[in-house]
Amino acid sequence: MLDKLSSGLKNAFDKVKNSLFVDDTVINELIKDLQKALLSSDVNVKLVFELTKNIKNRIKNEKTPSGLSKKDHLVKIVYDELVKFLGEEQRTLNLDKKPSFIMLVGLFGSGKTTTAGKLAKYYKTRGYKVATVQTDTWRPAAYEQLKTLSEQANVDFYGIKGEKDALKIFESFKDKYDNYDIVIVDTAGRDALSTELIDEIKLLKEKINPSEVLLVINADIGQSAEKQAKTFHEAANITGIIITKLDGTAKAGGALTACAVSGAKVVFIGTGEKISDLESFDPEGFVGRLLGLGDLKGLLEKVEEAFKEEDVVDIQKKFMKGDFNLIDLYEQMKAMRKMGPLSKVLELIPGFSKLNLPKEALQSQEKNIEKWKYILDSMTKKELENPEIISSSRIERISKGSGTEYSDVKALLKQYKQSKKMVKMLKGQNPKKLQRMMGNIGNLGM
Ligand SMILES: Nc1nc2c(ncn2[C@@H]2O[C@H](COP(=O)(O)OP(=O)(O)OP(=O)(O)O)[C@@H](O)[C@H]2O)c(=O)[nH]1
Ligand SMILES: [Mg+2]
To answer: Of 273, 292, 311, which residue is a domain's last?
Structure first.
């Protein structure tokens, strides 16, 4: 995500870090590099110059606090200003009412329906009772689309196939909504912000009385997001913005910064097509990640989510006792994967984001996990529960049955043995060893 902007900013920082001391040349070069990186991500020229002017002024006028090197101070100033640039404080949704209605609005194809599913999953995993309602009567497949997504998110779905009156659909389920903490309402899009669209949004708003009206914007419109955000803000009184498709455009920087100045705050970002590709937007963590400083908060949030499901907790207990088998190992791997593709997970870990691990290596790990599923499917229950009995003739049968190589099956068994060994060592409770092992436990799932 935002690879180009991120590497541009990191390069600018690296130059500062590698310089012997901070002088005017270094500062001017940093400013120039920052400008270049931001402009190439479609950030508005005026905004870029304002930002770099602020940075320069602070560098010139502020005394470096004692205990901080001049370089660190420089990094801190740039970090602070970028955070301010992106909206400064994180805004979380207002969900005090029961139910809290969240209404999604926006232009055609901006990602509303997908985001409705993502939000449902996001809050469901955090323990809320969630339902979705489809009021889009324009897009023919809208009903099925949100129904499927809601099934994936494991939340209830309401809609009336073929009904042409959005209000009627919403009203039909009035007696149901009280059963939920959060009801997410998807609405129809239009080509442009027309009076027709505004009227429909207003009408629905009146009936729904939503706690949040969120504008869904596609990141690939770059800095013109400002106009869209402003117009929606004024005409429909939106309470926040969700920027989607941040994964697929070089203009993401433009969209993000444009929204930050529109008067409405970005609350979530969509970073992929999958239902779990939604992140709450926190300017601090986001800038930290852009600059390669790591975003521990974001990581912890994801880890927590992945491990929330109770069965996984049970497996972890089993793991720690050492009496796990191949099925448990596989479940554990799946849980790790819920955090997202490996590359994204690593991006969140301080240090790792700087490693620039080759994409191919990460992809082949992902593929391994897919393969392992086939291998496990080809094993008998006995083999799964007691992998020690798997002889070479059994390996041959399993590899044939799963359409994999002999060596693939062996590799899986080796991983299993190593994990067992690791847990045994863990139980030896040598704290130093334990620490080293914890790193490996993380690797084991990936
Ligand atoms: N890569 C990527 N694709 C996304 C993201 N969010 C949505 N999409 C894709 O964008 C396309 C349009 O998404 P929808 O959710 O149908 O958009 P919509 O706003 O509901 O569209 P209408 O109902 O026609 O107005 C779909 O193909 C989605 O898979 C994202 O964050 N990243
Ligand atoms: Mg839709």
So the answer is: 292
Q: Give 136 Cα–ligand 2 centroid separation in angstroms.
A: 7
Ordered mean pLDDT values, 10 residues apiece, the chain (446 residues): 80 82 88 92 90 92 75 81 87 93 95 98 93 94 97 97 94 96 95 85 93 94 88 87 90 85 88 92 83 55 50 52 68 60 53 49 65 83 86 91 89 78 57 43 36
pTM score, whole prediction? 0.69
Question: What CATH number corresponds to the domain at position 325?
Answer: 1.10.260.30
Nearest CA to ligand 1 atom 10: 111
Nearest CA, atom 14, ligand 1: 111
Cβ pair 238, 267 in contact under 8 A? no
**189 and 252 together in one domain:** yes
Strands laid side by side in the 266-270 sheet? 156-158, 130-134, 182-186, 100-105, 212-218, 240-244, 266-270, 278-280
> Given the structure tokens 């359409």, which residue do they identify?
403
